[in-house]
Each structure stands twice: as structure tokens, then as C-alpha cells.
Amino acid sequence: MKYFALFVLICSATSIAADFKKIHREAIVVDTHNDVLLRALNGEDLSRRTTRGHSDIIRLREGGVDVQIFSVWCGSDFGNGKAFTRANQMIDTLYAIAGRSSDNAVIAKNYKQIKKILKQKKMVIMIGVEGGHMIEDSLSYLDSLAKRGMNYLTLTWNNSTSWATSAADETERGDSLSFKGLTVFGKKIIRRLNELGVMIDLSHVGERTFWDAITITKKPVIVSHSSVFAICPSRRNLKDDQIKAVARNKGVMCINFYSGFIDSNFSTRVSEIRNKFKPIVDSIKLCNTDFWKGEMLIDSVLAPYYTEARPPLSQLIDHIDYVAKLVGTDYVGIGSDFDGVESLPRGMDDVTFLPNIAKELLKRGYGERDVRKILGGNVMRVLKANMK
Questions:
Q1: What's the CA gap between 16 and 31, in Å, rounded?
Q2: Sequence-distant (≥ 6) Cβ neighbours of residue 362 within 8 angstroms
Q3: How far apart are CA 366 and CA 335, in angstroms?
Q4: CB-hemisphere CA count at 13 Å for 64?
Q5: Which pLDDT tens digit goes with each residue over 98-129?
Q6: Mean of the pLDDT values across residues 331-352?
Q7: Crossing angle for the helix pair 207-216 and 240-248, to the nearest 10 degrees
Q8: Rounded to 5, what percent of the chain is helix, strand, coil?
Q9: CATH 3.20.20.140 domain locations along the chain
Q10: CATH topology (fold) of 16-265+312-386
Q11: Are 323 and 255 in contact (CB under 8 A)?
Q12: pTM given for the model
């Protein structure tokens, strides 16, 4: 009898292994946030296989990604007169990558183009502008980026704009802020994004901005790369009432893979590593007047030492599972933050490990239909509802 039970267990494991690869391969897999363009700006040719970072066009295809939204981003040090130019520079870079990768990937500006490219068995390239400061308080700049293919606008990055407050500022500088949430101009931007068919991205924004935006919008929102506050209480994660609001809005929350946003103990382990290398950390801070730029450099330098602090893949799946159980499987997706973070969970070393998500979801009892929705079907629904 015990040998029969063992045989059944082995057969079951083999079946799951076969099923997850097939399901991942046949699903429309959508990742809503990838920062790899930053590497391209440093001279890497992402149309070829690379050995650095988490992704390139070749590895994205191997990982089964069908629709990739690439982040167009600059920090707060790019102020008025610089940020919009930087956005266009990054978009130019993405177009150049697409030109060199035309056999594998094509840029899409509308839903009809998305479907056409998918039928051609090529990867869809899309543009997400991460940070409202990149429109430089100009509706004409907003329109210009939309014409170039901007698929979503993240209302703020860590820095607030003159019209919207960020999660970082509402948390750390709340009492000193001249306003919280959206100004009259900020609300005008929400309405204009709806008119343009550009998704409103509520990652990075403060709670007041979140509630103002989701109250005003007439179309489903996206939360492109955030995780669950109840599991990991980071200001970058969403609280239960926010997750429920996204579901009522028929939007989608895409889970961020960053170790610090999925594991509440990761920051403690990182602090211990930073203390171990305190002279290096202090020297970087001394040489960088921009706080966020300094933090990113510190994380980049210490990334090899963060390996020992990585959480297991199961903790990433916990966040997907939490949202699915709280509001249903129709409102959760994936927003990896590949090449924008210094640490990923074990079992998610780069984009080629993406099929492991389907594997783990199947182990937890999710059916094929729900796995397909989580991998990309839900984002496809929101894209269709927004785009012209």
C-alpha cells in the first residue's frame, strides 16, 4: 500500500511539473514593470543575450513573457527642463532596441496592435512612464508622451510633484507638506489620462493621492509594482482597503518581486549587512547629495552580499494568494521590477524563472483558468478597458 501511495505522489508531482510549463507557455504572460532600460542607457545592447541583471529581449522570450511594459524613469535630480527630455531619451532607446529585435518583439500603442503582435508570436513592447515629474507640470508634455506610446503614467515616484504627493513624502514629511493628495491640476491630469487611454498607475503614490485618483477616474487603474502591506508593512505596499478599492474599480494590482516588499524581515537583515560595511555606506552617502540616488548606489554595491538575505519564492506567492483570497483572482497580476531591484526571492533569479509562479500556484490548488488570469489575463482586461 505504501508503495502505491508513493507511486501516486510521484505521478502527481510529475503531472504538476508538466502542467505548469504548458500553462505558462500557453498563457498570455504580462509583466507590468521592468527597469532594464537603465542598463541600456549605460551602453548594453539588450537585443542580445546579456550576462548581467535580470533580463534582456532574449531572456524575456525564454521566460515566456508575451507583453512587457518597460519603465521610463528618472530620479528627482531630473527637474523641470530635464525630466521630459530624459523620458524621450529613454523612449528613443526603447525604440532602438525594438528595431534591433524586430524578429522577436514589436512596440504596441493600442489594443488592436497588441492582439496583432501576439498573433505573430512576438513579444509586445509597451511603455510605462514612472513618475509624474516627467511631464514637468505640462499637459502638452503629457499628450506628447501618450502619442509616443506611453501606456501608463505612475503619478509619482518617491518624490512628490507639484500636483500629487508620494508615499515616501506622505510617510516621512507628512506634517511639513503644503498639501496631500491631488491638487486641482492633479485631478485634471487624471481626467486627461482617461481621455488619452493611458492607464493610471497608483504604485508609489501616497494614500491621499491613491484615494483622490481612484475616486475621480472613470476607467480601471493599475498598480504596476506593489505588494501587500498586511504581509510586509512597507509604505510602497497596499493596505486591505486599497486592494478592495482597486477591485471595486475593476483594476489590477501587480505584485512586486523585490525582497524588501515581500518579506518584512528582509530590511532587518539588510541593515545588518549595511552595518558590516558601514565605511562604504557612509562614503557613498557623503558623495551623493540626492538621497535616492545614494540609496540605489549603496544597494548596487552591496547586492552580492544581499544574497544570503533573500526570502523563499513561497513568500512572493503569499502576496498573490493574499490578494486572490481577499478580493478574488480577477484583480491580481505580476509587476516584477526586474532590473530595478537589488534582491529577488530564491527561485526567481531572473526572468527565465517566471514559470515557477505557475508551478507554485498549481501546488496551492489554483486552477488553470485562475493561473492564466494572474499571469496576464487580468492586465489584458484592464489594457482593453483603457486603450483606444
A1: 23
A2: 16, 19, 20, 23, 371
A3: 20
A4: 20
A5: 999 999 999 999 999 999 999 999 999 999 99
A6: 97
A7: 10
A8: 55, 15, 35
A9: 16-265+312-386
A10: TIM Barrel (3.20.20)
A11: yes
A12: 0.92
